[in-house]
Amino acid sequence: MQLTFLGAAGTVTGSKYLLETETKKTLVDCGLYQGYKELRLRNWAQLPISPKNIDAVVLTHAHIDHTGYIPLLVKQGFKGPIYCTPGTKALCEILLPDSGFLQEEEANFANKHNLSKHKPALPLYTREDAIYSLKQFKPIDFGINTLLYDDLSFTFKKAGHIIGSAFISFTHKKTSLFFTGDMGRPNDPIMRAPDVISHTDYLVIESTYGDRLHGDEKPQDHLEKVINSTAKRGGLIIIPAFAVGRAQNMLYYIDQLKTAKKIPDMPVFLDSPMAINATHIFCNYPKEHRLSDQLCQQFCSVATYVNTPEESKQLDQLKTPAIIISASGMATGGRVVHHLKTFAPDPRNTILFTGYQAGGTRGAKITAGEKEIKIHGELVPVNAQVEILSNASAHADYQEILGWLSHFTSAPKKIFITHGEQAAAMSLKTKITEKFGWNSIVPIYLQKEKL
Predict the structure, then answer these.
(1) In the chain, how long is the greatest CA-to-CA distance?
(2) Are 315 and 432 found together in one domain?
(3) Where in the sequence is the domain holding 234, given as residue range(s)?
(4) H/E run at residue 268
(5) Distance between CA 177 and CA 25 in Å, rounded?
(6) What is the CA radius of gyration of the chain?
(7) Which end of the chain has fewer CB atoms surrounding its CB within 10 Å, N or C?
(8) Does 109 score more than 90 pLDDT?
């Protein structure tokens, strides 16, 4: 086999890995780049391989940095099957059309306000392109060994990151290759722990939090402090949250705090049609999370669901304490950007980030302390209090990754450390070397490896 790193090399976005056997080509994940402009431009550049020559795609999970390029791949001629778990397919049916819709909205906004050098600005792909690509999805349950071709088979194992998230174990003749995708946490209060494995010849492992620990404070405790202090100021809490995974976590924590009467009974709004749909899907996969049916139904009803753009705009007229949960989680687009434009200038308010902020994103700039951010071509002052709920992450930190690796009964021949900023990936490499003495590398973009 040969493995080429087409994405997530030195960055946390754009996950794409080309796996080649003697006669066939498989793409593992098919994500969009986000963050820095030089990375986002890769979304528009021609792939190093023609989509027509790719035989199959296999996905770890539904997040856009792992799936968002699929509609363009299909548009450019990919005709093969797209394998994933049933949960991933259900979420992609929400995420991909929404991604296409946002691409169209951004292009229309740029054209209307003359914000692009391209005349006219065009979307990367449309909502219709995304819907069309869903026809090629082939769901396969966890634990089922599936033969692709050329003696290459794969099995999905539970990754515990979001609903449907999977590790992928490939076997080609006598060689094994394992992709973690995004690895969940062993003691997450909502998602079940990731499956453990004892051996693989080659390992591709994520490193989002390869240089840090999440801390011991419970997310509910931090959230309680933020909500109460903001309410006391008469402010609103704006929570940029990933529509799949983090939005559901926030609803659960808020419901628990309200039930225990630890926070005021202020209104909660879930302003993301995509997150609303994902919340309903969450309850359909009880084997992948720890919550009872009753708790699922309970947290699903804690918020007022905001569907239409008109309803979303009305939220910006709020003058009394409230909680608004809205996508996107890195504030790169979507409805939350409009709320930030309205509420970020007021020091009574709080902007609460709940997950990793990739370099170059609006979220990364705000959490780094920048006092002005550009939204829709305008500079918006950030006077609101900025908080980071880092211990609510759905990614394993370096200690949890090392704990997962400790179940191996023999050393992999080589470990490829990906899906992390360069500092995080190099830090994890050092920690793996110090603890286990194993051979690991941090691959660069377009690097090829013979397995």
Answers:
(1) 65
(2) no
(3) 219-392
(4) strand 268-271
(5) 15
(6) 21
(7) C
(8) no
